[in-house]
């Protein structure tokens, strides 16, 4: 045995194989660290910018108002307290744009009752509103809304690096970062909306599903409904996937039933106007007041909504070409035998049908509404690929 060891060690010393292996390991470790450091640094820089110069947008005004309405007694009082909270932090140009930037904004600024009527479409994010109220004594209501984009964004970045590290794919952060940027992560970080909170909860659930920890994943998926009820689309896509790919069906089936029931209750007690009224408002024609707004269903308006959504998505957003590019990348990986584990393959299928189902159920064109799906697909592709940049090309 000692002879064999001596021969092997001697060969390694004579040929320099040991030194080459050590250099390769050190280089890989360094590139892993550099890729991870660059990835997290970008998120930290954008988070700092978001805190110093936050984006006071219309959705933020509506969410702040929704968080305040449990302590006000009239539309006028709610209107006054909302704008007082917004005015504390918004820059002059932002405030002017929020109040007078377009006819809709001006009408909401000048009509407290109509302003309050808009909140039925925001009230359904019960978990997000609850967290805003929980942060208010510490940060103030507007700053709390800003932090609810920044903190989840940093958690999302950390989760991505954890997943990559567990799969020995940290260098893939160099690829993942631009994919997430195209998917609109930076805009989501700077805007005060529930989207980043939904993203981190959903990505954690996807990671757990990839590791076959279905029960814990399903608990997170149910919680995601409290952040944005429309995440029921992801849960339904996972239910179909569980049936087609032979997963353990009970956890996801129970989660879907519970989530669907929660959506109905949240919608009813939150005063949501219903799918068609919301569709008409968002996809056909914006309404200054939602009070008593119950338009008759029209196949023409229905078609207009989808045509508008498709046109704006293709002209002004990145999720359609990003989806096509990632599906093409998945096909290439499949051809070379790197399509991932059976669970990863099933999750790619679930995210693909979920993304298409999200548009089919409500054709809003903005990238942020599809981020859960595009970010999940991007992560799975990088994990399957495991790109490496520490091997020099062979000389001819």
Q: Could you describe the 3D structure shown?
A:
- The protein has 396 residues and is mostly helical.
- It has one domain (31-385).
- 76% of the residues lie in helices and 0% in strands.
- The chain has helices spanning 2-15, 17-52, 58-68, 75-89, 92-100, 103-110, 112-117, 126-139, 141-166, 173-182, 185-190, 195-210, 214-227, 232-245, 249-269, 275-284, 299-316, 319-335, 342-361, 371-385.
- Helix 2 packs antiparallel against helix 9 (141-166) and helix 18 (319-335) runs parallel beside helix 20 (371-385).
- It is globular.
Supply the key terms.
about 400 residues, mainly alpha, 20 helices, about 0% strand, disordered N terminus, disordered C terminus
Number of domains: 1
Unreliably modeled segments = 1-13, 15-25, 392-396
Cα shape: globular
Oligomer: single chain
**Order of helices and strands, N to C?**
HHHHHHHHHHHHHHHHHHHH
Beta-strand residue fraction: under 5%
Mean model confidence by pLDDT = 91
Number of β-strand runs: 0
Helices and strands: which structural class? mainly alpha
Radius of gyration: 24 Å
Work out the helicity level. over 70%
Distance between the termini: 39 Å
Q: What's the helix count?
A: 20
Major sheet: none
How do the strands and helices of this protein lay out in sequence?
Layout: H1 2-15, H2 17-52, H3 58-68, H4 75-89, H5 92-100, H6 103-110, H7 112-117, H8 126-139, H9 141-166, H10 173-182, H11 185-190, H12 195-210, H13 214-227, H14 232-245, H15 249-269, H16 275-284, H17 299-316, H18 319-335, H19 342-361, H20 371-385
